[in-house]
Amino acid sequence: MKITLSIFWICWCALHSLLISAPVNDWLQRKGGVVRGTHRIAYSLFSVLTLIPLLWYQYSLPQEVVFSWSDWLRIPQAMLLLYALIMLHGGYLVYNMGHLLGFSQWRSWRQGRENPALPFSCEGVLRYVRHPWYSSGLPILWTVGPITDANLFTRIILSLYLVIGTLLEERKLLHEIGESYRSYCRQVPMLIPWKGRVKVRLSSE
Fold first, then answer.
1. pLDDT tens readout for residues 91-102
2. Structural domain of residue 138, as residue ranges?
3. pTM for this prediction
4. Which among 68, 74, 109, 183 could disulfide-bond with 203, CB atoms 3.0 to 4.6 Å apart, if both were Cys?
5. Is residue 152 part of a domain?
């Protein structure tokens, strides 16, 4: 059962990454029309609708606790969760949610306009890390709920997925934004805000 669960998660992660990859996105842009206008919304819905049965299957399995955050360990657990919440909130404040969820692309298609260019910002939390939501994902994965013999493999797979997904997202952003993003990458850490707040200087040359 646990091997089956691991295979399901690996397939979900692989498909999730493939559908948002630069080659697929470029192909959809060339197709134009309703495909281009609805791709991002369809992707968001697909991600959620395929995640629900996967989570249901995981939680229906018999599980044995192998680790839980208890006693003094609740202090680092709380600190990691607080960090994750800060990253999530910071990302929400700076990300263009309409573009991220696909509503901007949908409106452009309905109005007969080209898709809006990818908005690029290096303000707010993006002065600390390049990917605040991915950065929040790792502490959330390892601090929410007890670790069991079943969800341990899920946590490992999703942790690897977050790292690989971050690297793939980097390639996609470099492809879409160009030298400005490359300059940004040289200054701001990817996931861990070890530099603190960075005064970003962008170069488009």
1. 999 988 877 777
2. 2-187
3. 0.85
4. 183
5. yes
